[in-house]
Amino acid sequence: MGMPHGVGLLRLGEIDSTNEEARRRAEAGERGPLWILAQRQTAGRGRRGAVWQAQAGNLTATLLLAPPGNFAQLSFAVALAVADLAQHFAPQARIAVKWPNDVLADGSKLAGILLEAGPDWLAIGIGVNLAGHPGGTEFPATSLAALGVSPPAPDAALSVLAARFAHWYDRWMGNGFEDLRAAWLARAPQRGAPIRARLPHETRHGLFEGIDASGALLLRDASGVRAIAAGEVFF
């Protein structure tokens, strides 16, 4: 299994959370870049403390690295890399991105991304449904297997993901966020699509207007266009 030049790989069996393992290693002095791949998580989590359910055969991994400036923008690079991974193995599927950091296949959630940071480290957790997906979720989920694709082994999926992330990371470092923004919007729903944005203290309904130069969601409603920095979006 190949990794990009200078990038390490740690394979684990059962672990509480790959992001937690990244934090522990960072606090012990590891700076990466290091991919941590687990066969099974017992306490995986998603955004806002939600439980991330990962079935056997799915991809559960975290990239540990020293945080660059404006590292929140890296969630868009990761989403593009995961979308590339999905398209690689499911070329006939409609692969799309959903703000802030989900990847969809044929309209259902295929993958989730969680960025967590400390004073001098960044953990980018990624879960991709390869072999199976949970049922009864608020937003419908899917997997490569459910798309009729013979799912790759997690090692093979991570090899593609690591290469595509390195590509988008280099694009971001070389060309800035506008390059990522344009590529992300090309995989996003069409401008003008109706959306519901669930914010910390309210829910807003409106039309999707894209993302701004900082990565904030742009929602148009009767009062105009509003930039939303954090929340959950439903189309």
Topology:
Layout: E1 8-15, H1 18-27, E2 34-41, E3 59-65, H2 74-89, E4 95-98, E5 102-105, E6 108-117, E7 122-128, H3 154-175, H4 177-187, E8 194-198, E9 203-211, E10 217-221, E11 224-228, E12 232-234
Parallel strand pairs: 1-2
Antiparallel strand pairs: 2-3, 3-7, 4-5, 5-6, 6-7, 8-9, 8-12, 9-10, 10-11
Helix pairs in contact: 2-3, 2-4, 3-4
Task: Please characterize this protein's 3D structure.
There is one protein chain. The chain is α+β, with helices and mostly antiparallel strands and 235 residues long. The chain folds into two domains: 8-186, Bira Bifunctional Protein, Domain 2 (BirA Bifunctional Protein, domain 2), CATH 3.30.930; 191-234, SH3 type barrels (Roll). The chain contains four helices and twelve strands. It has helices spanning 18-27, 74-89, 154-175, 177-187, and strands at residues 8-15, 34-41, 59-65, 95-98, 102-105, 108-117, 122-128, 194-198, 203-211, 217-221, 224-228, 232-234. Helix 2 (74-89) packs across helix 4 (177-187) and helix 3 (154-175) crosses helix 4 (177-187). The longest helix has 22 residues, at 154-175. The model has no long low-confidence stretch (mean pLDDT 90).
Rounded average pLDDT: 90
CATH architecture annotation name of the largest domain: 2-Layer Sandwich
Shape: globular
Q: What is the total number of structural domains?
A: 2
CATH class of the largest domain: Alpha Beta
- Overall radius of gyration: 17 Å
Main sheet: strands, sense, barrel: 7 strands, mixed
SS-based class = alpha+beta
Please tally the β strands and state the result.
Answer: 12
CATH superfamily of the largest domain: Bira Bifunctional Protein, Domain 2
Sequence of secondary-structure elements: EHEEHEEEEHHEEEEE
Instruction: Classify the fold: give the CATH topology of the largest domain.
Output: BirA Bifunctional Protein, domain 2
What separation lies between the terminal Cα atoms? 37 Å
Order of strands, widest sheet = 1-2-3-7-6-5-4
How much of the sequence lies in strands comes to 25-35%
